[in-house]
Amino acid sequence: QVQLVESGGGLVQPGGSLRLSCAASGSIFNIVTMGWYRQAPGKERELVARITRVGPTNYADSVKGRFTISGDSAKKTVYLQMNSLKPEDTAVYYCSIVGSGATGQWYHPWGQGTQVTVSS
To answer: How would you class 19 by CB atoms within 10 Å of its CB: exposed for 0-12, middle for 13-18, buried for 19 or more?
Structure first.
């Protein structure tokens, strides 16, 4: 069993910054992909940023140049630094980590989400 817990969300003014963190607990040891997604009310969940161990970092076009994803596989933690926040960034942000356990089983858990609200 693997569980992800996000933190760092909140209410910020346009142009402000937030740093989200997501820590995994449980039997996941080999991290392949770490990603952040978001979902606004009435909309589908969308990819915000993703980092893998074998490929380049991917960002949604809407956040390029403003958001930075980073991860620490040893600590099983992924971060999302969000700068120059805009009202349209308002959403619930979810983290997801893809990896395997000690016996080779694969996991793709989702966090419960953390609310980010950008408003003046």
So the answer is: middle
